[in-house]
Amino acid sequence: MLQEIYQIPEVALRCYKKNKKLNLPVNVPYLGMGSSYFALLAIKYQGINIQCELASEYFNFLSQNKKAPLGVLISQSGSSSEVLWCKELFDEYLSIVNYENTQLSKSNRLKEEILIHAGKEDHSATKSYVNTLITLYNGFGIEVKQAIEVLTNKQKEYEEWGKSIADKIYSLIQQNKMKAIYIIGSGVNISTINQAALILTECTKLPVIALPTAQYDHGPKEAAKDSVVIGVNNNGIDKSRINNLLKTVRLADANTFELFDDLAEENLTPITSIVPFNYLAYYLQKRLGIKEIFSVGGKVTTVKI
Q: In whole angstroms, what is the distance from residue 32 CA to residue 77 CA?
């Protein structure tokens, strides 16, 4: 996993160059699961008009078995069951995948196959998540070169942050002073907190909960005592609220940490801010002595209808 994290800047630049002229549609459903769905939130919270939905919920509850003219289906593996179910719900669809000729791309309804060029990935979604973001940003005409430069220049700093926070959380676990981990953030970084919670849960088997800042403020903060609260804070609109909230829960005996990265414009920070959490997941997994990430199920979710 560590080697895959180290490769992120290189494969991000490759994806940027190969998908630079991509043009994605608006006002149509964009469907994914897990990391693929979380990446869509970074687009939604920039005010871009996409119908961003979980593929499972769209299939079971929203489509009502009616075909739509066009949709965009995202699955890094190209094999996630819930996304595959949705192929027949569109007259045509675009697929966003990591590999050519996956199950998702095998349909006469396929209009275009878009590759994210992340390369082989055996562990939690690290390279593929960042490259999904870059593909989406490119497709909506959002310039990401600044974010890729930050990724390249700050790898060592991101790794040091992840390792340091991992050591501190492990110490709290050893002292029985850690009952849950909350990750909070706002706007475009709602994508970051959800992805961070996903990879931390996969790697550490600990309860990690992602909540938008305002949602955490509306009740869950009452569980602050002996919890870890990590705020993703990047000079955005909610900066003061996050700072004040971290101070409030610290006084209630929460252990608080902050991820602050202002080198990229806020709308680009989902591309950069996830990387420190990748390192945190890796080093905390090592500290806990966990050798297998996908011990309760495989990397690709397969479900029968």
A: 11
